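Tutorial handout. Part one gives the primary structure; part two gives the three-dimensional structure as tokens.
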Amino acid sequence: MVVVTRIVSDADAICHISQSPQTADLRPDLHADSAVWQQLLLIAVDVLGEADSLFGVLLGFRCCGAELVEDAHGNWRIAAGEMPLDEYEHDRTTWLMSRRREIGELLRRLTSAIPPGA
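Part two.
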């Protein structure tokens, strides 16, 4: 069982996962893209492995309410979703931008597996 808690401080909101990462969507309550997140996490495990820090970062973003949406070119992209936009932008810069090539590859594989709008 995965237990998720949200700790909010003056500076940041941080999600903590009490057990090892799994490929199940940690936010199945966000129905619109739950199956897509599950597929992204499966792809990430296949490409990166569960021990890779990027896998944990993706889990953390989903835990905090990030969503997968279709971009202007018909591909998946990670968006703020339920995260406050300033928090998302800060966390995106801190955690995602340094690994944007790898994230881009994961999202390309996701688009091939589940085309947006399908």
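Part three, for discussion. The CA atoms of residues 28 and 34 lie 6 Å apart. Residues 1-21 have pLDDT under 50 and may be disordered.
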